[in-house]
Amino acid sequence: MVCAPGYGAHRGRGRCGQLCPKKGRLMRVVIGADVGGSKTVVVAEVDGEVRARIQAPGAALRPDLVLRSATTIADAIRRSLAEVGRPSADVIVVGAAGAGRQQEAKELARALRAEELAETVRVTTDGEIALVAAFGQSPGILILAGTGSVGLARDPQGTIHRAGGYGWQMGDEGSGYALGRAALGAVGRAVDGRAEATVLSQRVLTATRSSDISRLVRWAAAAGPGEIAGLAPLVLEAAESGDRAAGEMVTRAAEDLLALAVSLRGLFSEEKAVPVAITGGVFESGPLAGALRAMLAARSDVMPVDDIVDPVAGALSLARDIAETVSE
Amino acid sequence: MVCAPGYGAHRGRGRCGQLCPKKGRLMRVVIGADVGGSKTVVVAEVDGEVRARIQAPGAALRPDLVLRSATTIADAIRRSLAEVGRPSADVIVVGAAGAGRQQEAKELARALRAEELAETVRVTTDGEIALVAAFGQSPGILILAGTGSVGLARDPQGTIHRAGGYGWQMGDEGSGYALGRAALGAVGRAVDGRAEATVLSQRVLTATRSSDISRLVRWAAAAGPGEIAGLAPLVLEAAESGDRAAGEMVTRAAEDLLALAVSLRGLFSEEKAVPVAITGGVFESGPLAGALRAMLAARSDVMPVDDIVDPVAGALSLARDIAETVSE
A112-136, pLDDT tens digit by residue? Predict the structure, then answer.
C-alpha cells in the first residue's frame, strides 16, 4: 500500500481509515456518487487521489421505488470500495436525480446508512453536485441534458434555482428523450412523404432491431423514456454527417436549452456576463455542445464555459469538505 | 313488439331472429361496434332501425391483451342486445383499433365467436368502418383524430392506404395526445418564464387534481397516453376563448392533420378535388374541426366534407350488407 501523493496536504484522519504505512497516520477515503436516470457513476478517492471509477445502471429516485435505487447505488459503492481495497469509507456524498423530493432523499439516506458503507452519508440532488462541480460555491448557470433536461443556477446569494426539468411528457426540451422522440417522428413522416428522407430511418430501424416500420411502431409504443433517449446519439451522428433533418433537431435542441439558460439569467444583475456550463450525455459527442455554446457566445449577457462538467466531481468535493470538517 | 318502419324493405330474415308478430316474418338484428383506444361504441339495429347505442371503455387491441379487449367488447354487445330484448344478433361487425395486425384481429374474432353473440362475426379495422361511414365504397380521404391520429384513403381502385398512425411516441401528430402533451409543455414553460402565461396552467392543475406544479410534474411522469389525451378538451376550450398559446396548439394540430390529407392526396389523379372527411374526439367541440376544414377549403385539390363522420355507422352498414348476402 502506498500513500497518495496529496496525502500530506490533508488535515485529518478518517475515523474508519487504515493506518498509512509510511507516516503512521490514517488514510482518508471519500466517495462521490452521481445517480441519474440512465446511469450511476461512483468515484472513490483515497487521500485526495481518485482510485476507482465505477459505472452502474441508472437509479433515479422514484416514489415507492427508493429501496430499489438504494440497492443499485450501494452495490456500485461496494464495488468501488473493493477496488480500493477498503471495507468502508469515511464520507459518501450521493447526488441523485429525484432527491429534490424530501421524502425520497431521506429514505435513500436511511437505506444507505443501514448498509454501513461509511461513517457519514449525505444525499443531495444531482443538480447540486453538478453546480459544485461547475462553479464550486460561486454563482453561475448550468445546463444539464441527459435523458431529461434541466437548467440550474446558483445566484450571488448562494440560493439554487431551476428552470425546466418537468419530465419527459411535460418538458425535458432539448434532452436525449426529446432528440430520440424527434428522430422517431421524422422516420414516421418520411415513410408517407410528409417529410424528407433521412439517414435516421435505416439507423433507427437497425438500432431498435426492427425488421420493418410496423415493428418499429410497436417498439416505439412500448419504449420507456430511457430507451427513446438511447436514440439520441444517432441524431447527433447523423447531424454531424450532414443529414438535414437531424441537423434541424440539434438546432432545435440547442435553442430549447438556450431558453433554459436565458430564463435563469433573469436572476442575476445585468452588469456582467454570467458563466454557463453544460453537462450530460447529449453533449459528450456530436454537434450539440458546439451549437449551444455558439448561441451562448452570441449573447452579451452570458458566457459559455469551455469544459463539459463531470458532476461526480462535485459529489467528491462535497465529501472532501465534510471529511475535513469532521476531522478538524 | 313492433316491426321497424324500414322492415318491409329488407330482403331476408335473420336465422336466429324472432318472428315478426305483424307480418309473420323473422326480424333482423345487426350490430356494429367501433372500438377505439379511449372508448367503444356499440349500436344495435333491428330491421333497419337503430334501437340501442352503448358506450363502453376503450378496448383497442394490443398484443397479448386481446382477450381483455374481447371481454369489454362482448359486454358492450350483450348490453346492446339486452336493450333490444334479444339473446343474439344475426351479424356483428367490429371495427377495432389495432386490428390491422392480422394475429390480433383473428384472436378477437375467435374470442367473440366463442361468446355466441351472433351467427356471423366479422372483425376489421377501425379505419375501414370509418371509411365506409364516410364514403361507402367510393374513394375519398378520411382524417381520424382521437387519442391518436391517422389518415386513411380509399383510392379509385378500392385499395385502402394510410398515412401516420405511428403511435403516441412516434407520431399521432394533431391528436388528442399531441394536444394534451403540448398543454403540459406550455404549463411548464410558463412556470419559469420561457413562455407566456396561459389559462391552461390553472385548468390543467384543476383537471389533474394537482395542488401545485410539482404534483402535476409527478402526474405527467406517470400518465398514460389516454390520460394525456384527456387534457385535449381543455386546449380546445381555451383556444375558443382566445388563449393565444392554446390557439397556436390548435393551429399546429390542424397543420399536422392537413399534412396527412396532403400526403394521401398524392394517391389520386390530379383532375378533380378529392373529398376529405374528418372524425374523432378532437373534432367534436371547439375550433379544430373548423381550422382544419378552412385549410382544406383553401386548397384546390381537396374539398372538406361537412359532417363529422360517425364510424360505427360504417360497421352497421357492413353488417347490413353481410346480413343481406347471407339471407339471399
Answer: 999 999 999 999 999 999 999 999 9
CATH number assigned to the domain comprising residue A93: 3.30.420.40
Tens of pLDDT, residue by residue over B133-181, are 999 999 999 999 988 899 999 999 999 999 998 989 998 999 999 999 9
Q: ipTM > 0.85? A: no
Q: Give the residue from A62, A65, A104, A169 with the most B CB atoms within 10 Å of its CB, the best one to mutate.
A: A169
| pLDDT value, residue A38 | 80
pLDDT > 70: percent of chain B = 91
Domain span holding position A121: 5-131+312-327
More confident residue, A75 or A101: A75
Residue of B169, B188, B193 lying closest to A166 (CB–CB): B188
* Residue in this structure with the C-alpha cell 398512425, named with its chain if needed: B165
Question: Is residue B301 in a domain?
Answer: no
- Answer yes or no: is pLDDT of B279 > 80: yes
Answer whether A98 touches B (CB < 8 Å).
no
A185 at interface of B, judged by CB pairs closer than 8 A: yes
- Contact call for B184 and A169, based on CB within 8 A: yes
Is pLDDT above 60 for B4?
Answer: no
Instruction: For the beta carbon of residue A241, count every other beta carbon within 10 angstroms.
Output: 11
Count of structural domains within chain A:
1
Residue A191 lies in a domain: no
Q: Is residue A296 part of a domain?
A: no
Minimum CA–CA partner of B161 in chain A:
A192
Residue of B nearest to A261 (CA): B194
Name the residue facing A221 among B162, B163, B169 (closest C-beta): B169
Per the domain annotation, does B307 fall within a domain? no
